[in-house]
Structures are given as C-alpha cells and as structure tokens.
Write a structure and sequence with these properties.
Layout (H helix, E strand, L loop, with lengths): L2 E15 L8 H10 L3 E16 L3 E5 L6 H9 L6 E7 L2 E4 L12 H12 L3 H15 L14 H12 L6 E5 L7 H17 L2 E5 L3 H7 L2 E6 L2 E7 H16 L6
Bound molecules: adenosine-5'-triphosphate.
Adenosine-5'-triphosphate (ATP) binds next to strand 1, strand 2 and helix 2.
Family: Belongs to the ABC transporter superfamily.
Keywords: ATP-binding, Nucleotide-binding, Transport
GO molecular function, one term: ATP binding
Length: 255
C-alpha cells in the first residue's frame, strides 16, 4: 500500500541577522560590515503539518511566495529533517525539486549521469542501463565526454530532467514545471511529465498556476506562513486561497 504521511511536522531554521547600520561615513560602515557579529535567531518555517496521502491522491500545494511549499516538499523527500514530528513514506519517491542536484561542473556528461543517479539513489548497474536513454532523451549523445561546464544552461537542464524522470516512481513530489529549455524540449518534457504523473500513485505539486493545479490535482492544501490552513477538494482549496489573499488585502478594520 503506497502512502505518504506527515505527523505534526515542524521545521525551525537558524537565521543570522546583521544589525542595522547607521554609520555616518563609508569607513565606519566598512568597519561595521567587517566586525559586527551577526545575531542568531531561530525561525519557524513549517508548523504542525498533519496529513496523509493515499493512492490516487494528487495534492496541490497552494500558498503565497514564502508560505513554505518548497520547504514542505523537501521535508517530505527527506532532504530536510523536521525539527519536530515525522514523515512516513511507503513506496518509492521521486522529487523534481532541483534538477541540477548532485552535478559537478568539472566532470563529463557521462560521469555526471553517475553522480546524479547516485544522488537520486540508483544502483551503479541501474545507472549503466540508463545512460543511453538519458542521452537520447536529452539529445546529448554527441556531448557524452564533454565537461558539464561546457554545456549551455538549457542543455544542463535537459540532462538533469532526463535523469530525474528516467524511472517511474510511486510517489512524485514536484515544484512548478520546468520553465527553461527550448520549445521542442519543453513539449517533450511536458509529455514525459504527464505520463509520470498519470502513472504515479501519489502526486504532490507546488505551483502558482491555478489552471495547472486544477487540471492535475484532485486535492489542495493551502499553506500560509508555514501552517496548513486548508486541506480538501482542489477547487475549494483554490477558493479558500483566493479569499485568504483578498481578506489580507482589505484595509485594517474592514470585515
Ligand atoms: N535555509 C533557509 N534559511 C532560512 N530561511 C529559509 C531557508 N529556506 C527557506 N527559508 C524561508 O522559508 C520560507 C518558506 O520558503 P519556501 O521556499 O518554502 O516558500 P515557497 O512557498 O516555496 O515560496 P515560492 O512560492 O516563492 O516558491 C521563506 O520565508 C524563506 O525565506
């Protein structure tokens, strides 16, 4: 049985704040910048998140910039350890969060397929079988022995995308759709993602596009300042979010 459960998940991170400078001269400002010790504070980014996703659930993560969507995806993937609470994952999990994770600029394309494949959790034998399909999908057959740093940004993105999506998993965690790359690759990438989403048992997708979220997802979770404010049908979640934003835009004192 495939499932994804977050139990009372909270995440605190340390932040280092530089004190406000009101120096009168550029020299005292320079001295302040060099010698003022930053103040350490703890900031809560996620607070008390509880939910369980089961087979067939496609959850839209909805919220303003900085609400905690990407952070929650990273905690679900295990990239960040929650400060309190726990995450239980049953099934294989693919995260499309950072397509250049595990890349090394000095290594060749072939070596990077190994590096990235290892970072994702593939075994060496599995990675060897993936080399040809990855090169084929990314259109980089002619560049297999080139160093990564000689590739364009779009070619690197193609490579990262081709590796990350090479294998179908049970659970898919995604942050927006990949926006770079040329028109031809974008069409290919969308087709592959649609296939992966359709064959995944559980999907969690963070995006600001209401159209995309309502076409892919059946449930929606609204995050605000790291708290889960709503979980339910995706249309109700989008409506809840619109009202939340509208209420905050009202002048003080207006109900
Ligand atoms: N490593 C970190 N240290 C300190 N604060 C962080 C760290 N990572 C994220 N934050 C803060 O956590 C909050 C949530 O960030 P997150 O990237 O999860 O937001 P988001 O909802 O995905 O936003 P967006 O829609 O802009 O992508 C933000 O206020 C951000 O500044």
């Amino acid at each position: 049985m495939i499932s994804l459960r977050a139990t009372d998940v909270s995440l605190d991170v340390p932040v280092y704040l530089q004190s406000e400078r009101s120096a009168k001269t550029w020299f005292s400002m320079l001295l302040g910048a060099a010698f003022d010790a930053p103040r350490r504070e703890t900031r809560t980014i996620l607070s008390g998140i509880n939910f369980e996703a089961r087979e067939g659930d496609r959850i839209a993560l909805i919220g303003r910039n900085g609400a905690g969507k990407s952070t929650l995806l990273r905690v679900l993937k295990g990239a960040f350890q929650p400060t309190r609470g726990s995450v239980q994952v049953s099934g294989s999990c693919q995260a499309l969060l950072n397509v250049s994770l595990g890349f090394n600029n000095e290594a060749t394309v072939r070596e990077n397929i190994f590096l990235r494949g290892t970072a994702i959790g593939f075994r060496p034998a599995q990675i060897r079988d993936l080399i040809e399909p990855v090169l084929d999908f990314s259109g980089l057959q002619g560049k297999v022995n080139y160093r990564l740093k000689t590739l364009s940004a779009g070619q690197r993105m193609r490579l990262g995308f081709a590796i990350s999506t090479a294998v179908q998993h049970d659970i898919m965690l995604m942050d927006e759709w990949i926006g770079t790359g040329d028109v031809e690759f974008l069409a290919k990438a969308k087709e592959r993602l649609s296939g992966r989403v359709a064959s995944s048992k559980i999907v969690v997708l963070a995006s600001h596009s209401a159209g995309l979220l309502s076409s892919v997802c059946n449930k929606g979770m609204v995050l605000d300042k790291g708290r889960m404010e709503f979980l339910g049908d995706v249309k109700d979640a989008l409506q809840f979010y619109r009202e939340l934003v509208k209420a905050d835009a009202q002048p003080a004192g207006v109900v």
